[in-house]
Amino acid sequence: MTRGDTEPTGREWNGVPTVELTRKSFWQRSHHLDRMTLRDLVVAYFQYPAILAYGALAAIAVGLATWRPSGALATAISVAIAVLVYPLVWYVLHRWVLHSRWMFKVPVLATTWKRIHYDHHQDPNHLEVLFGALPTTLPTIVLMTMPIGWAIGGFGAAFAALAAGLLTTCFYEFCHCIQHLAYKPRSPMLVAMKARHMAHHFFDETGNYGITNFLWDRLFGTFYEREDRSMKSATVFNLGYTPEVAERYPHVARLSGGVATGHPRQRARG
Hints:
The protein has 270 residues and is mostly helical. The protein contains twelve helices and four strands. The protein folds into two domains: 1-30, no CATH class; 34-269, no CATH class.
């Protein structure tokens, strides 16, 4: 147990404060994937509130789809489309929203941008930041899946599509964690997937926007292997939110206690 994992009890003995420490609850502590094993990740993953919420909502959606079912074909098509469209939706959001340079200019959006992506690029291995935030992910999943299902088969198909979207999100989140974990996958496909995502985080953020699927990167011309690009991006960790930009648009810097620069591991040592 380290002191960072504990907190004072606040108890007194004969009027004198004690120095006894109690262990913090699991998610009151920080978790960094570059210091975790695969087992550590699995334990953390199935305790994270957002993952538990996705699973519970998926079970409810399956129950509702079963209660008022659509036809088998309509349900199957709705589920298939929800799963297949997910990589495209992620690509669009990742490229043109999360990597935009307009959100931090609007104070009401700057807080959201900081939480859902800037912090992740500032410290890519910080597990709590890596997971999506429910206030932003859930509306996106609902809008991405339920209208498709409803148009194809009505009530039952809409909730079947929602369940598919929620479970696909769980799969993507776990794959995303694996890509940042201090662990080399045995599958050559996962090794290649991880290398491309690591290049996005540590070499050039203007490409490889996919997580488990790079089809849309190939189609839109943003796919690359690291050896294809000779120079490292100067904005790979700050997404263009530099100290100079922060002087004009300071909201994110105020929330972050300044603008961090350089490699996350070097900052941690400093």
